[in-house]
Amino acid sequence: MKDSASVAERVFDEGEVVGVLTTEPLGRLLDYKAPEGGCGTGDFVEVPLGPRRVLGVVWGKGEGRWDPAKVRPIARVLDARPMRAELRSFLTRAADYTLTPWPAMLRLATRAPGLFDPPSMRKVYRLAGPVPNRLTEARARVVEALRGWGGAAVTLRELAEAAGCGTGVVKGLVKLGVLAEEEAPKDTPYPPLNPAGLRALAGQQVAAADALVQATTAGEYQTFLLKGVTGSGKTEVYLEAVAECLRRGRQALVLLPEIALTADFLARVEARFGARPGEWHSGVTQTERRRLWKMCGEGGVELVVGARSALFLPFRDLGLIVVDEEHDTSYKQEEGVLYNARDMAVLRASICGCPVVLSSATPSLESWANAEAGKYLRLDLGARFGVAELPAMKAIDMRAESLAANRWISPTLARGVEARLERGEQALLFINRRGYAPVTLCRACGAQVGCDHCDARMVEHRFLKRLVCHQCGATKPVPQACPSCGVEGKMAAVGPGVERLAEEVAERFPKARLAVLSSDLFGSARALKEQIETIAAGAADIIIGTQIVAKGHNFPLLTLVGVIDADLGLQGSDLRAAERTFQLMRQVAGRAGRADRPGEAWLQTHQPEHPVIRAILGGDEEAFWRAEASERRAAGVPPYGRMAGIILSGPDVAQIFDLGGELARRAEPLLRAGAQVFGPAPAPIARVRGRHRVRLLVKAPKAVPLQPALAEWVAQVKIPANVRLAIDIDPQSF
Ligand code: ADP
Ligand code: ZN
Question: Is 454 annotated among the ligand-binding residues?
């Protein structure tokens, strides 16, 4: 591994003025004087800011805009590896692309808690003694939370947070002897991985792996689009590139879209490389995250598997990035700093000078188009590995099926499920709706129950015995009387959700063992993983699931997938609706027939002749992409044009519409650059948590450098303190 990383690039002598980027929302660089003993570029430092001390990184020479007599000295240089030039450059370029203030970007890169505390200050807690049968509710929650972490050492703050109680409750349990308080363990390197033992690849896998391995050896930037149906061996192929990266002594990063997928993946890495890699996501303890952050910088971890935020880790020598399921919308961070991890992975790889692999069975139109244009190198894996065939797909025309009221499984689909049960195989019924019923309305007056804080309907969850807002999480009891007209006993659940479908299945197939997979039914990623494992082992006959079943899980006995409502995603005006539906349906169908049994996927639809439905049913996939591409090109939207959304949110709807109107009137900087502005209009979700939201959309031809124009434009309007303005470059919906 290169060793330059441990040497600061430029040494400033005591008293020299340096520019420091802090994590506080204050412009860009602040001037400070180098402390006694000097400092270097990239050093982590603590600097005085008003009465406080805050974290910062020495970014370079000071700008000298202030009277040197007034510039304060850096309080102390922290005992950590300096941030490398590569990461600093990534942070500033990512910030400038997404129009994020630099300090907010630095916060993303320093998000391991207690990063710079000495170990003696970091106490951790674990279960020590017997747990008494009777505990107060809060204490019981603490014990429960610790068990959820499976015996890991957890800090005071995160334990209290997870249990939703004060820190005193934790301390009380220590006094009782139920918990032990210990000093945090030392941050030790991760066990080495063994990259030896090449897999015997087959068919198109060979050429694809060769290309990836070659690029990894060369250590040059290149984006690959690795495309192949589920089960074609994409993971197998990119793990060869990971192996090569490890042999070169460089670090590799694999991004996964969903925490629930990591357990499977970690097991696979362990089987392949003989040890577990570093793991980074919100389900990992703070102590472990801190260790991983440190080991990234010291080279004490060779492979990191993580969620999108792993992109901001301070790798010492990153040699390969993989973005698995690259089309997945959860790569887009929709709160705080708005970024798409897939695009940022490409940016970081280009700065590191290393290959990046975007892997998917159903690539995003963006990546497909970039491959068409020759910017990305496309590698195709055609068939499924071994004997497994892609499932045969067909539409069930719901116009020709007879269904009783409040029933959603057609006679045709029911017969298919029946046949699976007789053969001892599994069937999966997919419905992309959580809860019991999407609408609760009054049969007397027709009013629907909505959220008090959002523009969203409340969804009934029988499991919780409450109505839940899927926007903000607010809940309320199912009303006996209509909140609008007051008539009693007329409230009705309308439409199907996963829980209601489960009810129908239980009635129709009373002997079958059911498993319901919906993200909200599981308290933790661990519980979900256990459920998935028992299903894979054959503990269920019928699986009923929402979107989470579409993602990468492997059920060998599953031979029939039934999609309850294939038309669901096709409604609405979003230009991405077709792409989304296409991807989701193909992914779900890909769950069937992964092992030695052929699978089938049946789609219940009211519009079997819809072009998207026809494309899903195994028509010409490339033709679908080309048709989509030409529609987007005609509309001048991504990936054939640039786009940004400006969201104004605030408590007063008139105020934010006024501000939006003012922005629209002062569009001169945009127009001059060749961009257009639309709106203001209510945002796709017009009210969240009591805050109203309006949106303006900016559209520009590809050649327009949009960011500087946007920055100049929004700077003209003063945004009051009670309003938030967020700029969303490349919005997900338009
Ligand atoms: P994908 O990532 O495209 O869904 P995987 O890499 O998970 O596909 O491969 C699907 C299954 O086939 C896995 O169980 C994997 O171990 C197996 N497999 C794929 N290629 C090979 C190979 N060349 N040799 C042995 N097993 C393979
Ligand atoms: Zn709400």
Answer: yes
